[in-house]
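Submission checklist for the structure archive. All mandatory fields must be present; incomplete records are returned to the submitter.

[x] Identifier: Cysteine--tRNA ligase
[x] Organism: Ignatzschineria ureiclastica
[x] Residue count: 454
[x] Sequence attached
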Amino acid sequence: MIQLYNSLTRQKETFVPLEENKIKMYVCGMTVYDYCHIGHARSLVAFDMINRYFRHKGYQVKFVRNITDIDDKIIARAQERGITIQALTSEFIDKMHEDCEALNILSPDSEPRATAHVEGMITMISKLMDKGLAYRADNGDVYYRVRAFKEYGKLSNQSIDELRAGERVAVDQFKEDPVDFVLWKHAKEGEPAWDSPFGPGRPGWHIECSVMSEEELGIHFDIHGGGMDLKFPHHECEIAQSEGCHDEKMANYWMHNGFINIDNEKMSKSLGNFFTIREILEVYPAEVLRFFILSTHYRSHINYSNETITQAGNGLRRLYTALSNVPAELPALPESHPLLDKFYAAMDDDFNSALAISILYEAATTYNKTQDAIYYTILKELGAVLGLLQQDPKQFLQGDTENLSIDIDAMIIARNQARADKNWAESDRIRDELAALGIALEDKNGQTTWRKIS
């Protein structure tokens, strides 16, 4: 049985799906006005790992990850660049998909876009107004009447009086109460607008996920996830909208991944420590970034630095080094084995990928010592469960050598000849020269192989 931490109840619970062997899971996706950054990578990898594990355990998963393609920042960026909103969002949706492919993120089963669901948002807002949970202000905006929903604050575990307006909630004189949040923004010159019973305009941020999750998964579904920064106000507001509209529970389990700090500080463009996924992948292989993220439990915060990601790269190379010694015969994964039991126990305990990776190290170490091919199979197959270790080991270990101005294979031949001639000084000189270029040699079974070490 899988135990997962439910942010709503603030405790681990045994996961029980609404329908046997089926899971409906909704995760908040990207607002597409710029490149994805490392914080986005954290959420993408974390929920990809969870999605993969559920499927590995035999569940039929419908995984939905939305795209926000209408938003204040999108409008401002399109105007700044002098292009249409559609051109801007299409560009960055393509770039997001490229980043996901590099990080070995499975495609969601559905990827709804906010602009395709505006009619549903208008319908939900109308229902909320009919129930007295929303009102049209004098400026033409429609706001949610927070104090009318008695359970507001149950996800963030705060009372209404303790709450403050969130990041994307404008505080203005038109609200009945400062904690109220916008559902519909009246039309402004030069901005896209849709017709509605409460006047032309466009939806607020929070309403989109309430509607898209309902239209994709139903009113009541299994899991809602996202980054910890979305717990309040975004997810709190979703609950108020959906449950206020339907008088029915929205999601049984709420899951949130932790933050990524940069050199022990919060990532911020103003601090100059803001990294996009693409910037990181110019320096480190994509699988190293994925391995780095999975090496920490998804709910814990991660500190990103050159040192920590270099350590992750070294760890991943250690596993691939074991896999580079391919056995003559490769057995199938056994039905039971102590390492399998330990791996599944770790993952069943709230998807503890960090502990699961320690089992991969154990399999690699045992294989190196015993050459028992069963440990090779365990390492490879359990790595696949986490979306790791599926590259050709030689290709991964040798990496990108296009910029090297030397012929490594020719230098290995020259070194082996020097060794055959007992010219140890020349042999050592060649090894040292390669080591200075970040190339390590390994002599085994009469053959010399190489790998990049930096």
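[x] Structure attached
Curator remark: Residues 149 and 240 are 6 Å apart (CA to CA). The radius of gyration is 26 Å.
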